[in-house]
Amino acid sequence: MFKKMLICIDPFPPDLGLLACAASLKQAGAEEAVLAHIIVSDAPGLEKMLVAQAEPEMERQRNILEEAGLRVTIEMPVGYPAKELYELAEHHDASVMVIGSHGRGFLESMSLAASALGNVSAKLLHIARRPVLLIRTGRTSAKETERQCPLFTRILFPTDFSDTGEIALAYLENLVRAIHCPVALLHVQDRSRPAPHPPHRIPQLQNLAQNRLQRMKLWLEQAGAPRVDIELAHGEPGAEIIRQAGLKECTLILMGSQGKGITREMLFGSVAHHVARHAEQPVLFIPALR
Q: Lowest CB count within 10 Å: 52, 186, 194, 230, which one?
């Protein structure tokens, strides 16, 4: 499913938690990793020095991933990070891109630490045509990184029943077939905006949503999920997804990156952006077809 991944890193200092989560994708069929660090420099001739500075740590991280059983190559192109990462993913035909929510190190080359969501991470999520696994970085102790990242202990799948949600559901089904992991299904009826339907239709829409969740539950159970819970919630979707992920002790959120509506199909969805900024868990974003 995710045979080749592009891992976007800063080597100064290394984030071993990011590597641990990336290595856990072996459960989903990962065999090969491209370890990418983008060199950012406006000074002619500085690029070679920055590459030489990064090489020892990049090799050390390559060894960590190879010990986990992955084939690893290193890429250190010079340029604008989001653009270069996008092009690397296309060039290597990566099945998934793995990136941290904050960049750190020399010149903050991967992102801006002042932002709640790294600048490069945000740009990449907007332009990516491939799944992106976003991992909250810088919060893992050295002792914790010795253990495998429990990425698939329980997956939260929020859906708005959009076309992108259906694409994300196909990814979830493939994960369930490969790993047989528990799943929590969530649909949030948005109470933060004016209701688009008359009040007398609300019970009918709730029943429709409940039936859709039940069909998903049966489908995933047949695919091999040992447990599937469903939740029909009300409120602001982004905030409710964050709350339910913590309440249900989920280790991964898997969702479409765009929701319903013309504007949201054109841009990285507002709900997805809220989740990207605030989720404590790794989030696997599945893009719409373009």
A: 194
